[in-house]
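Is iron/sulfur cluster placement plausible here? Inputs below.
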Amino acid sequence: MQIMQTPTEANKTGEPKAPLILEIKGNSLDDGPGIRTVIFFKGCPLTCSWCHNPEGKSAAQEIAFDPEQCIDCERCLPVCKRGALEPNNPYFVNRDVCNLCFDCIETCPTGALSRVGKHMEVDAVAAAIEEDMPFFRISGGGVTLSGGEPLLFMDYVSLLLEKLKKIGVHTLIETCGYFSFKEFNIKILPWIKTIYFDLKLFDAIEHKEHCGVDNSLILENFEKLRRAQARSGIELLVRIPLIPGITATDENLSRIAAFLRKNESSRVALLEYNPLWMEKSRKIGRENAIALNGSITAWMKAAEVERCHEIFEGFEIV
Ligand code: SF4
Ligand code: SF4
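Reply from A.M.:
I modeled the complex. Tokens:
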């Protein structure tokens, strides 16, 4: 099976090529134990139609436009030599014409136009994290690698995790599970404390339809991780995004529950659907079929969530 990888050539200092970082977000209480700093990587091998971080899907830089921030000053219009800024275009930027020179961003006084993704060397990320060490100490927190998919950048992440382990920082990776286990075993497992492992759709055809890839590698990797848990002492938590009509169906959740029972895995997080991703998607000029048909623009009802929880009776739901 071919796994999408980004180039791994080293830079001048011999370090792995720096991937794009979307954001380093401090003071998070939602991405693992204690107060955490979350590093969002840009790029993912999956293309989930409901992705909550659509700006993390592509591993390339993008331009974003936020209409809420725009004051219609039109300072940016003459700056764009390609005529890619179109006031009557609902996305404002014509991405078929834009060559990502980012000249317009410099002139925008409000930040309505912005660059999505910034290359950062490992040392720069580690330095940014070190400032948050006091918060980790008082709260039992640490660093969470999220995305996108951090394991798309295995060499870089390995180096970062090694540095963090040496300075005593608790580390956690949120992964879609689509990676080479052989590489993961050597480069990641020695340095990581906790893995949040996403399972979305159990049926292989539905997984391919909604997430762009077959799920056999993901299920295999989960089974290998369960076996590795005893020797490595890592904490493993399965997370299931509840997407109405797609993943949050009785059949899908029952099949995932049976798979977890077979693997003697009894802790899950059920992530309630959050429709706010659609707004983020529009900012980078993308609409999505499930947004356009309007079928899942609302938050889940309490009864729907309760029904999903019932399927995992006997599990510890966190
Ligand atoms: S990034 Fe460059 S090409 Fe694209 S809209 Fe801005 S100025 Fe024009
Ligand atoms: S410069 Fe910024 S605020 Fe002014 S029109 Fe362009 S995008 Fe809007």
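Short version: The pocket of iron/sulfur cluster (ligand 2) is lined by residues 70-76, 107-108, 110, 112-113 (CB under 6 Å).
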